[in-house]
Design goal:
By secondary structure, this protein is an alpha+beta fold. About 20% of the residues lie in helices and about 25% in strands. It is built from five helices and 14 strands.
């Protein structure tokens, strides 16, 4: 298949040509596809967002590249956020720092008087009001991929949680609607309906395994091992199965990876063997893809205690 073979994508319609519709039809697995990010900067910015949300928005154009450079230097992911529904509503320049590292989880909200304040504000949780409830970020970044807007905006408006925001690009467009739950950094994809089951799970301190892509900041083999152990053992607590170590095993076949991962279970160490395989065919991974791409999928081989 070449770029000219890809089906057209009419704007503003969730039809069979969309990447998320095709992914659902194929049964694409989102397991172990969470971002490697562990620290986050949420910047309230109403209005439209271009493909590069920070640089192509109403955020101060002189400050934006400086903020992006600081974020790269300090390994922090910048996400623009806005309240669902009224894209122009401004709640007063809120911003938050979030830390998803195990044992350091937290999210702190502050208010800026100017965008330039973010260039010198500490990103360490030492300022701001700590959030007491999970924060739900729903990707609605239509400037990056139409599926994110077409699936994400209705979900963000309907989600029955106290702290819900639309956000800029999370990654994994074909898994829209995509959600990340902070401060733990759990990524979800293909979230159906109003997301009520996801919210109910996190209100009980558990993950919603059916749509879980993985936990941000963990290597893909560890994400896959946690998912496999949760399926096998029913351990759904957000803090269950902390990683202890991962070892690559001899590859059983060309193009295949096999890993043994040790996790801290409530009753002792859980050892999981997972395998990664290349996809059988190249497919469009986003609505704007100019050529099809290949992905790797992760599979549980064994779980033992």
């Amino acid at each position: 298949m070449t770029a000219t073979d890809l089906p057209p994508r009419p704007p503003g319609r969730l039809d069979a040509a969309r990447c998320s519709v095709q992914a659902l039809a194929r049964g694409d697995s989102g397991i172990a596809t969470a971002s490697p990010v562990q620290r986050w900067l949420l910047v309230e910015q109403p209005g439209p967002w271009g493909r590069d949300a920070l640089l192509q928005s109403r955020f101060d154009a002189q400050v934006a590249p400086l903020l992006a450079e600081r974020a790269r230097r300090e390994d922090v992911r910048v996400l623009l956020v806005r309240r669902p529904g009224d894209r122009l509503a401004d709640a007063g320049g809120r911003w938050a720092y979030a830390d998803s590292r195990p044992g350091r989880e937290g999210l702190w909200w502050s208010v800026r008087t100017s965008d330039a304040d973010l260039l010198t504000a500490p990103w360490d949780g030492s300022v701001g009001e700590p959030a007491s409830l999970p924060t739900y970020l729903v990707c609605t970044h239509g400037g990056h991929d139409a599926c994110c807007a077409l699936r994400g905006r209705p979900l963000a408006r309907a989600m029955p949680a106290a702290d819900v925001w639309e956000c800029s690009h999370l990654g994994g467009d074909r898994f829209a609607a995509n959600v990340v739950v902070l401060p733990h950094g759990f990524y979800y994809g293909q979230v159906p309906g109003d997301g009520g089951l996801l919210v109910a799970a996190h209100e009980q301190g558990e993950v919603a395994l059916a749509w879980l892509r993985g936990r941000a900041g963990l290597a893909a083999p560890v994400q896959a091992a946690q998912h496999g152990a949760r399926e096998e053992l029913g351990l759904l607590g957000v803090d269950d199965l902390a990683p202890l170590g991962a070892t690559r095993l001899p590859d059983p076949a060309a193009g295949t990876e096999r890993w043994e991962v040790a996790l801290a279970g409530p009753a002792g160490t859980v050892t999981v063997v997972v395998e990664s395989r290349p996809s059988g065919e190249a497919v469009p991974l986003t609505c704007s893809a100019v050529r099809p791409g290949r992905v790797r999928t992760w599979h549980r081989v064994s779980v033992s205690r």
